[in-house]
Design goal:
50% helix; three-stranded mixed sheet; 6 helices; single chain; globular
């Protein structure tokens, strides 16, 4: 099944948000903590680099899995710029996707993969935005509610509360009246209070 325009539009919105967060990264931010347990910002950027490569590759119909984890980034400020370019490449790749993506011998609907990409990019964009000292563009310290609203279904399907497998923290409670961003992030085990220091 070829990804729906809505799935690709969600990916484009996630990329727009994450590009703003990446634009705020400085060399001084690299050792800062992130909402990802045990990861500093440099670790998170290395993970995002690997994820962007994999999801861009997926648009071609296959992802080659590698047992090695990505190395820590050596040139963080330049790499943040490189990651911004990779996000653009990711959206362009999904303009001409195949209907099925082979990942580790399993065939997945491309719609599922593009939604996973949108979720990964958006949530890690939020992680970056919360980790930098200098906030991204005004109002972008946290995930925008319209983007979060579009990703809720994917989050529940791809990260059900009973199947986290170390990918996400346990689901957190949200206060009554919480917005879509807080609900999405809490479902994925992310605190939504003040950014870490």
């Amino acid at each position: 099944m070829t990804p729906t325009p809505a799935g690709v539009e969600l990916l484009a919105a996630a990329v727009t948000y994450t590009r703003s967060a990446l634009a705020a990264v400085t060399l001084d931010d690299l050792a800062r903590p992130t909402p990802c347990a045990d990861w500093c910002l440099a670790d998170l950027l290395a993970h995002l680099d690997d994820a962007l490569d994999a999801f861009t590759e997926a648009a071609g119909g296959r992802v080659w899995l590698s047992p090695a984890s990505p190395a820590l980034l050596v040139r963080p400020v330049a790499t943040a710029d490189d990651l911004r370019a990779k996000t653009r490449d990711l959206v362009e790749a999904w303009d001409r996707p195949v209907p099925v993506v082979e990942v580790g011998g399993a065939a997945l609907p491309a719609t599922t993969v593009v939604l996973a990409a949108a979720l990964e990019v958006a949530v890690h964009g939020n992680d970056v935005a919360r980790s930098v000292r200098r906030p991204p563009a005004p109002g972008l310290r946290r995930l925008p509610d319209p983007l979060a609203r579009g990703l809720v279904g994917a989050a529940h399907a791809l990260a059900p509360a009973d199947d986290r497998a170390g990918r996400f923290g346990p689901r957190l409670d949200v206060p009554p009246g919480a917005g879509d961003s807080e609900r999405l992030l809490a479902h994925l085990g992310r605190e939504t209070g003040a950014p870490p220091d």
